[in-house]
Design brief:
Number of strands: 9
Order of helices and strands: EHEEEEEHEEE
CATH superfamily of the largest domain: 2,3-Dihydroxybiphenyl 1,2-Dioxygenase, domain 1
CATH architecture of the largest domain: Roll
CATH class of the largest domain: Alpha Beta
Distance between the termini: 24 Å
Radius of gyration: 15 Å
CATH topology of the largest domain: 2,3-Dihydroxybiphenyl 1,2-Dioxygenase, domain 1
Length: 127
């Protein structure tokens, strides 16, 4: 069995789409819009075939950002090398994104950094 996609509600759908295209090499499909409900979404495809759905409803709002709340905690992207982790983390920091941790080697042997997107979602960049 494989994961088909992971989905995320976003307050600013276009900003999230641009974020995943600009920094993680994703390609957005056509925007879906349901006139009855106001639901909109994009599927972002990545080079290995995985997909990430970003969605919005007119009443979508951020929950309080609690680092250890129950539920999905983060999405992780494999950058291929320590140098790529460092370079992408530096670029994101320079572009105004918050670096939460790293780059560093974790206790379980991953080399990673963790950043927040503009809506507070955690993104790991790892080898």
């Amino acid at each position: 069995m494989t994961i088909d996609h992971i989905a995320l509600y976003a307050e600013n759908l276009e900003d999230e789409k641009n974020f995943f295209e600009t920094y993680f090499g994703g390609t957005a499909g056509e925007k879906y819009f349901n006139e009855k409900t106001g639901f909109t979404s994009y599927f972002i495809a990545f080079e290995d075939g995985t997909r990430h759905e970003i969605m919005n409803m007119p009443d979508t709002r951020k929950a309080e950002n609690i680092l250890r709340m129950a539920g999905y905690a983060h999405i992780a992207f494999h950058a291929g090398s320590m140098e790529n982790v460092n370079a992408l983390t530096d670029k994101l920091r320079k572009d105004g994104f918050s670096v939460i941790s790293g780059p560093r080697t974790t206790g379980d042997g991953y080399y990673e950094s963790c950043i927040e997107d503009r809506e507070g979602n955690l993104i790991e960049i790892t080898v």
